[in-house]
User: What shape does this take?
Amino acid sequence: MHIVVVGLSHQSAPIEVRERFAFTPGMLERALPLLRSAPGLDEGVIVSTCNRVEIYGVAAQAADAIHAIDDFLHRFHELEERIGKEIYRYEEPRSIEHLFRVVSGLDSMVLGETEILGQVKKAYDQALSAKTTGKALNQLFQKAFQVAKKIRSQTAITRGSVSVASVGVELAEKIFGDLGASHVMILGAGDTSEKAARALLSRGVRSVIVSNRTYERAVALATELGGRAVRFDSFGEEFVGVDIVISSIAATHQVLTRESLGSLMVARQNRPLFLIDLGMPRNIDPAVNELDNVYLYNVDDLQSIADDNMRARQEDLSRCEEMIGANVAKFQEWLRRLPPGPAKDHQHPDPAGSPSTPIVSH
Amino acid sequence: MSEHGLILVALVMYAGAFVYALFLLQGRPLWGSWGHRTLITAGWLFHTYGLYLRASEIQRCPITNPFETMMFITWALVLCYLVLGMTWRVSFLGPFTLPLVIALCLFGLFPGLDRGRSVELQRSVWLSLHATLSLLAYGVWGLAAATGTMYLLQERQLKTHRLRSLFLRLPAIEQLDRMNVRLLLVGLALLAVGMVFGFVVGVEFLKKDVPKTLWTFMVWAVYGALLVSHRMHRWHGRKIALGSIALFLSLLATFGVVNMFSTVHKF
Assistant: This one.
C-alpha cells in the first residue's frame, strides 16, 4: 500500500496554471465520486485552496496511483495539453512529509499561517462523506492534524502576527482584550487604514467612524465598512468616545499633539487609547506615547514587530522539520504493518482519532 | 509526615510549577498548561493537609506563631489564585503568584519561627473567622500585587514596542486592570468583615492591642483610599498597579513589626 500526492502550489505554478486545476465546491461534489472510480486508485482526498490543488491517493503501486491521479486531474478539467514541471508527484516518504508540512503551515505563502489546517480538515471531511478514504488516508490525515496541533503548541511557528494590519489587531487585543466594546476612528481614507479597519472589524469592534478631508470619500468608505462618516473639521468632537485611532492623513503638520491629547485624555477619563499613525510625514506627535494610557505605533513600529515575529517563526523551522521527520518515520512503520486490504475498502476513522499503536512522537 | 514535611512537599511542588511555567514561556510545555495547574493544586492539597494537622494538634485556627501565620497567608494566596484566577480566566497569573508564595513559605520555615504561641488566642468561632477572613484579605491583596506586576510588565512592553515572548502569554492590560480593582475590592470587603468579627470577640481586646488595631484600620483605609481614587479621580492601570504593589509590600514589611508591639496578635 503506497501513499502519493500529485498537485500544484504557489511554489510550483503561477496562478494562471493553478486556476485551470482548481476545484470549486460544486466541482468537488462531482469530482470525488469520479476519483473513487479512478482505475488503480484505492483511496483519494482532494485539497483545493487559492494557493494549492493537491490530490492524495493510495494504491498498491505508487506509480499506478500517480498515473491515475495525473490522468484524473487532466481529464476532469478537460485539459488536452499535459502539464509537466509545474505539477509535483511525490511518493513516500515525501508524500507523507508534504501533508504534515502543509497542515502545519510550513508550505504556506505566509510561513506558519493557520487557515490551511481548517481548509485541509474540510477537504478531508468532504472526502470522508463521499467515502473516498480508507484505512491509510484516514490514519494519515488524523495524524497530520495531530502533528499540526503539536507543532502549533510546542513551537513559535504560528506565534505572533506577521503583517502590519494583523499586528495592529494583536496590539489592540493586548490593550483592550475583547474588542467587542471598542470604537474605532479612521482619519484619512488610505488603503492601509482601510485594511487595518477591516482587520479590526473582523475581530468584532463595536463601531467605526471615518473622517477624511474629502467628505464624500469618508462617506463612501464608511458605507463600505458599515460605519459613520464625520466631517474632517469636527473629528475632534468624536475623540472622547473612541478607543482606537488609525491615522493616515496627507498633512504637513501634526493633527494630534501631546498638549491637545493631554486635555482630551482628561475628558476621556483616562481610558486607554491606541493610536496607529500610518501617515507620512507622521500625523501624531511621538511624545503622546509618554502620556499615561496612550499607546502610539507608527508604520515602522508595526513592520518591525511583524519582521521580528517572522524571524522567530523562521528560527523555529528546523524544530518543526525535526518533529515532522520523526512523525513521518513512525507513520511509515505503522503503514508497513498495515495488512493489504481489499481495494476500495472505505472505513470511517476511529472517532477518538487514536490508532491502536501510537505513531505521533513528541 | 509532619506538618513541616507536608509544607516542604508543597513548597517543592510550587517551585516545580514555577519552573514548569518557565518552560511554558519558551513554548515547550511537556503536558500543556494543565501540568502547571496540576502541580499547584497538588501542592495546595499538601499545604492544606499540613495546616489541618497543625489545627488538629492545637485545636484552633493555626495562626498562633509566625510560622503558622506565614503558612496560612500563603495557603490563602494559593486558594485565591486557584478560585479567582481560574474563575476570571487570567492566563499566566500562576507564575507571578508563585515567587511570592515560595518566598513567604521559605521565610516561614526559617528556624525558630515555629516557637511560642499567642496564649490570648482562645478557641472561639468568631475569633477563627476574624483571623481567617483578615488573612484571606491579605492573600487577595497579594494576588492584586501579582496582577499589578503583570500589568506593569505588559504596559512596559506596549510602551517601548519591545514585545518579548511574555507579551503573547500575558492577558490584555484592560483585563489586568479590571482584575486588579476587583481583587482590591474583594480584599477590602474581607478585611471589613474580618474586623467586624474582631469586634464581636470583644472590645476589651482593642483596648489591650492599640498598635495592631490602629495598623489594621490604617491598612483598610489606605486600600480604601486607592479604590476611592480609582472611582473619583479616574485612576487607571499604571497608578492602580503601582498602588497595589506598593501597599502590599508595605503591608508585608509592617505586619511582623506591628505584631512585635502587639499584646494579643503576637504571631
User: Anything to note?
Assistant: The domain at 164-309 of chain A is CATH 3.40.50.720 (Rossmann fold).
